[in-house]
Amino acid sequence: MFAGVEAARAFSRQVMVYNFQQIVEAKPPALEYSVASKVFCTETAFRVASQAIQIFGGNGLSREYAIEKIFRDARASMIQDGINETLAIGAASRL
Ligand SMILES: Cc1cc2nc3c(=O)[nH]c(=O)nc-3n(C[C@H](O)[C@H](O)[C@H](O)COP(=O)(O)OP(=O)(O)OC[C@H]3O[C@@H](n4cnc5c(N)ncnc54)[C@H](O)[C@@H]3O)c2cc1C
After folding, report:
1. How far, CA to CA in Å, does 79 sit from each of 46, 54, 69, 82?
2. Please, what are the domains in the chain?
3. How confident is the model over 3-20, as pLDDT tens digits?
4. Is 79's C-beta closer than 6 angstroms to any atom of ligand 1?
5. Which of 80, 81, 89 best tests ligand 1's pocket when mutated (most atoms within 8 Å of CB)?
């Protein structure tokens, strides 16, 4: 879980720095990197949140604990701002 979160964090920051530099140099941002980062980070968030619920057991599904909300938010992130599947199809055509 820790490795997944750190890998996602490192990837998204690297893409942000790269695309920021592209914009500074008046070049178009690399959208395939942005999409790859969005898909990877949201899938990692969902997997890690699911693993956290497993650790909490039944309590993880109760509204008493924040993990239930984190899990729902992580699942929504795979749909909002573009469904991961359709984003990936668009990005793949750029690779
Ligand atoms: C928490 C949340 C916040 C949101 N906030 C906003 C907002 O602020 N502003 C706004 O405008 N919208 C917002 N939305 C809407 C969001 O942008 C849409 O839900 C999203 O674009 C997907 O559209 P859809 O729900 O119609 O699903 P659809 O596009 O109908 O997709 C349904 C299913 O079909 C699959 N699918 C669709 N096309 C393909 C394809 N070509 N190949 C393979 N599979 C495919 C998808 O993977 C998915 O499983 C939000 C959604 C959520 C969940």
Report:
1. 12, 23, 16, 6
2. 2-92 (1.20.140.10)
3. 999 999 999 999 999 999
4. yes
5. 80
